């Protein structure tokens, strides 16, 4: 371990244990699971694989801690959160390196995520003092009506691997600011980032039991999730991940009528109208589609380009994608890292081949070699997919990628002519997380933004996530909002207090 002045070590060998009630401990079963570098296939280390009993221990610790944490002042909670933020920013380069090793994203993106993640802690450190209630004018002169906000209680937090730090802080910081305590199940593919954040929370002085981390391998994940969802002591579940898993957790949580927040899958349209600034649209498309190797829930999934500008847009996008450099995220100049695992690789290949079999033309990338040839021999066992662009104007039948979330570095281009028709195509999916469109017509901005059935809509930009704005979807993309001034509401309950016999002032 590093000395106390420098803070805790973030080497994988020093992040092997779970964190329950302020103690770092192994799983009761003694089981562990391996964590790999997806760029090389190398095992980085092993982590305690906690199960149902460990999770129950963590829930009990969080329940005990809640009795004290809820009574601390919002100012005090905010001060501890701000200390956590400062510690995180002070170690952002180390945290980013750790993230790149386990997740694969390029180091520049990882540094950006650490800053983004820390900003959620800073935001909710400030929001803790703004959990205002209301006084409502009563219908009788001798009554007073007051609405108070109380913390929900113990919260089960289940996070994904694609943003291993930001998805922790976006949920945990809001919960703690509201006065809740948490039990977190970090993803088995990227547990180190979550455990490192717990180390910093401990260093910041957040009391024992307020934050608990129960890492687990794939075989224990269903058991841990079920324990969190069915425990009477847990009053809220917050989950980010696939729609299928979200539905399962929602069913399990119904047994105890828990409060629930779900941020699930997407199928984002990216619409380029004939009057769009094409340079901006292309640059935004690259950022939106290929950030994180295309493995984000708000990635563009279907590109709809007006036929009047289809050819120049496709040509410029192809040229830009050809400039992307694949490799290990720690290497200089790399802009696209590996997929997280072979399952992700196989899905992208399947969707690509299905589209080609139905008439799609390959404009660039998508080498038939899997993995594609890379200069560095270290990467021979990495889970890489070459970034590619498909022209899907002449499909003989609908392609699977029109309905399925690609979750990889594959851009599929479709042509359209009519505004109403493209809105209908964009909305013709069961999910509704994020949508993007590009136009210089201000009247069209309002029309399209209002008619797209998505929880978040970006106009003339490919990046929409920020701590100040509410993040979340509609339809099968989820329930609730995270971040922004709305972000604490899902961790609070409203209490109505009716005061009678207060005296008639008339």
From TrEMBL:
Keywords: Mitochondrion, NAD, Oxidoreductase. InterPro entries: Ald_DH/histidinol_DH (IPR016161), Ald_DH_C (IPR016163), Ald_DH_CS_GLU (IPR029510), Ald_DH_N (IPR016162), Aldehyde_DH_dom (IPR015590), Aldehyde_DH_Superfamily (IPR050740), Succ_semiAld_DH (IPR010102). It is found in: Mitochondrion. Its EC number is 1.2.1.24. Its main location: mitochondrion. One of its GO terms (biological process) is gamma-aminobutyric acid catabolic process. Pfam families: Aldedh. The keyword Mitochondrion applies. It is an enzyme of class 1 (oxidoreductase). One of its GO terms (cellular component) is mitochondrion. GO terms for molecular function: succinate-semialdehyde dehydrogenase (NAD+) activity. PANTHER family: SUCCINATE-SEMIALDEHYDE DEHYDROGENASE, MITOCHONDRIAL (PTHR43353:SF5). This is Succinate-semialdehyde dehydrogenase. It comes from Vitrella brassicaformis (strain CCMP3155).
